[in-house]
Amino acid sequence: MKLYFVIGPAGSGKSTLSALIAERTGAVYLDKDSLATPFTEALLEQAGTDKQARDNNEFYQRVVMDLEYSALLQVAGDNLRLGNSVVLDAPFVRYFPDEAFLEKAAQRHRWPEDTAATVVHVTVEGSRVRQRVEGRGYERDAWKLSHWDEFWASAQAADCRWRGAHHVLFDNSREGVTPEALDRAIGALA
Predict the structure, then answer these.
(1) Is 175 exposed, middle or buried (0-12, 13-18, 19+ CB in 10 A)?
(2) Number of structural domains the chain divides into
(3) Domain CATH code at residue 96
(4) Which domain holds residue 94?
(5) H or E stretch including 151?
(6) Hey, which of 11, 22, 26, 47 would disulfide with 87, CB 3.0 to 4.6 Å?
(7) Is 111 in a helix, a strand, or coil?
């Protein structure tokens, strides 16, 4: 089984690329936002905080975010044990510094030993990311847009140090996520 982690900042094209990889490989597509948003918003409201706030919400950062990722990784494990390859669409930035992150996740979520992990780093220029984030119109992006320099600096500083995976760079700056661009990169994903 293959497990693809498609990572990159908000607006980089992670979701488009993730869906295309899933379509091309027959893998299960799991998006953290689709899986967790209703629960996350309910938890944030119950805590008396803005249900759209993530980046600047202490309760979200301290309590909720790890729950979202744990659920995502558990569902990935459920699918891997059924013999399904999986594509994960989520930033994962908090976990980049932990070199052993994949090993710990594999053990905790009981991934099969023959699971081959590929981390697809989606890169794109900052001005294009900002246009995409503005264009999608999500309320949860308000903090990013009003603190753009801070958001973009932290997104650029994030260095994924995970061992035990094949790391692939997908530059989404020029032509965007197209089947042709994926075809050029698919050899690295195989």
Answers:
(1) exposed
(2) 1
(3) 3.40.50.300
(4) 2-189
(5) helix 148-157
(6) 22
(7) coil
